[in-house]
Task: inverse folding
């Protein structure tokens, strides 16, 4: 932190310490509903005596997701009721007139494969027949998990926290029908539990279907896979500077001084197109099972300004003019080579974010629109948020010309992984906004280093994003409450929910905006009074005091880190610079808690790790 930043931090600490603004303190809440199972009249699937007339009917094709779904259903129903229902092949004669039909069988069940696609689900319940079916690739498996959730309250909250009620019986509603096909056919995040390959069930139970961070087998539903990397591939994967720059510099971007630089490509050079096209085709020949090839710019602003690139971009009114023209040519070659199920993916990112005036992406091109410049204290479609207005214009523009529009969205503060990022109030609105503008794929980038620094609700974010990407209309706060109760304990969770509500309410005024690298001293992150801070301290103390066991207490302490980190960065309360001895002692205590709770990283990047010998006279953002 510079001298000027330290002066500002000191002044802000003094101001925020003495300013109360007369704001009211939040009152405890008792109206936080939890997730419920389907109500109404019920019938016995399995009685309390362990009796059942039902069998599970499956085509029993080994290695398929539908047979895998039948076995999962059998296992979980046994955990719920204590009774293991038999699985019978649909071609076998059975004495039972009561069946749970799983997937595509020879039973007289109409399944609309065309509308269900790969992931759509269909649940039909009556006293003699239960049907759990869907798209052949993943739909039936997803139907089983949806059935277990809505009928019995099962949840897969984290890699090591699953809620499977032990009821000693199994009851179902006498009548229930539900068919659903998700709007987003590509659903991905890099938050903590989804980004953990040893627990693949978390991914398919919560309906993440992309293969960027997981490797699911065909029977586990398989994944929508990229060939090679999924980002910044043009110079990292296809036309690599170490191979071409010294001998063919003309393949690379020209800067404003007329010099060729290795940081981007010249997209109007026919030789560049030839090299990248051949690399893409070679990749597909090596692995024809992939569905997407990423042809994407490097992560910088050094686009080519040679005569031809400049002219095309000027004609199109955007640097996306050269990008879409280049990618369209590759996509055409891929289609001509017979790869009819492959899409070429590219970015609308930073300098390519604005859609072109004339050229339109081919039907086998994916455009990933990135929200990196946006404010996340306000919804992306908030017309009063100046930081988001242009993004809204861009998504409208792309949605008019692009058949396969994807979003790369952001859900953390990369400069302060362990500080508050109060965006819980906009996550659902943003998901609905994407769906309303014909988006079919969403990648929610988050704290991909959360295993080194899970101090700010990483697991909660992962779970809520899974629900929103599957269905933006999900009962968001009920799902939040269910997670909080299971994760933090039945006597502690409401305190933490209140903290989330308070911080959400006090972020991003109409005159301040919260980006993904926002300083902790910026009032856009949190703008709260002394009285409110004291109340929040009480919330965390009550949550810890009511923890039911050591595991729960550790989770509470870990999530409290974000609050303490923010106060320390702002020199507030026990971290006040006007009381230097106490501040130093509290900083040292915070550091020791970092180490005990496994926090070894503060921010993104190579220099983001926590120092082994920090200066406790400095704010924690400088302990690296």
Result:
């Amino acid at each position: 932190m510079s001298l000027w930043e330290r002066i500002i931090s000191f002044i802000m600490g003094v101001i925020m310490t003495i300013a109360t603004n007369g704001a009211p303190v939040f009152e405890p809440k008792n109206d936080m509903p939890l997730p419920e199972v389907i109500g109404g009249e019920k019938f016995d699937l399995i009685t309390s005596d362990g009796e059942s007339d039902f069998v599970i009917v499956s085509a029993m094709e080994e290695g398929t997701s539908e047979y895998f779904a039948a076995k999962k259903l059998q296992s979980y129903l046994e955990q719920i009721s204590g009774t293991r229902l038999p699985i019978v092949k649909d071609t076998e004669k059975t004495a039972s007139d009561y069946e749970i039909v799983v997937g595509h069988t020879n039973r007289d069940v109409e399944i609309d494969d065309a509308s269900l696609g790969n992931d759509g689900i269909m649940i039909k319940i009556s006293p003699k027949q239960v049907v759990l079916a869907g798209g052949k690739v993943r739909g039936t498996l997803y139907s089983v998990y949806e059935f277990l959730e809505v009928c019995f309250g099962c949840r897969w909250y984290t890699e090591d926290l699953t809620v499977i009620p032990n009821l000693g019986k199994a009851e179902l509603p006498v009548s229930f029908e539900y068919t659903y096909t998700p709007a987003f056919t590509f659903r991905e995040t890099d938050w903590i539990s989804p980004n953990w390959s040893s627990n693949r069930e978390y991914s398919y139970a919560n309906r993440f279907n992309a293969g960027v961070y997981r490797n699911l087998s065909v029977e586990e539903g398989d994944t929508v896979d990229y060939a090679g990397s999924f980002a910044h591939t043009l110079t990292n994967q296809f036309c690599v500077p170490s191979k071409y720059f010294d001998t063919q510099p003309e393949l690379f971007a020209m800067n404003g001084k007329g010099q060729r630089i290795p940081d981007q490509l010249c997209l109007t050079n026919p030789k560049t197109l030839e090299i990248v096209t051949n690399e893409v085709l070679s990749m597909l020949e090596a692995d024809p099972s992939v569905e997407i090839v990423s042809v994407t710019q490097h992560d910088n602003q050094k686009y080519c300004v040679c005569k031809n690139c400049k002219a095309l971009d000027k004609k199109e009114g955007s640097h996306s003019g050269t990008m879409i023209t280049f990618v369209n040519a590759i996509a055409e070659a891929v289609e001509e080579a017979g790869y009819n199920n492959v899409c070429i993916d590219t970015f609308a990112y930073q300098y390519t974010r604005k859609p072109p005036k004339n050229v339109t992406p081919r039907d086998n091109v994916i455009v990933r629109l990135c929200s990196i410049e946006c404010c996340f204290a306000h919804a992306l479609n908030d017309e009063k948020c100046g930081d988001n207005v242009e993004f809204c214009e861009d998504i409208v523009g792309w949605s008019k010309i692009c058949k396969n529009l994807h979003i790369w969205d952001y859900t953390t503060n990369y400069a302060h992984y362990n500080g508050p990022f109060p965006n819980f109030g906009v996550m659902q609105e943003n998901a609905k906004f994407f769906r309303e503008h014909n988006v079919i794929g969403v990648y929610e980038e988050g704290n991909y280093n959360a295993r080194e620094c899970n101090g700010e609700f990483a697991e909660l974010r992962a779970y809520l994003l899974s629900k929103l990407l599957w269905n933006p209309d999900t009962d968001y706060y009920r799902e939040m409450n269910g997670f909080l109760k299971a994760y933090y304990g039945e006597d502690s969770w409401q305190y933490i929910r209140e903290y989330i509500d308070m911080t959400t309410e006090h972020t991003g005024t109409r005159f301040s905006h919260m980006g993904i690298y926002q300083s902790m001293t910026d009032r856009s992150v949190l703008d709260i009074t002394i009285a409110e801070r004291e109340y929040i301290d009480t919330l965390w103390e009550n949550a810890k005091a009511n923890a039911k066991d050591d595991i729960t207490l550790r989770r509470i302490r870990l999530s409290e880190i974000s609050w303490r980190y923010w106060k320390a960065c702002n020199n507030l309360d026990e971290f006040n610079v006007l009381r230097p001895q106490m501040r130093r002692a509290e900083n040292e205590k915070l550091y020791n808690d970092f180490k005990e709770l496994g926090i070894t990283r503060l921010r993104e990047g190579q220099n983001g790790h926590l120092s082994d010998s920090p200066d406790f006279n400095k704010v924690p953002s400088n302990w690296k």
Summary: The chain has three domains: 3-33+493-622, 42-181, 187-416+426-447. Residues 16-26 have pLDDT under 50 and may be disordered.
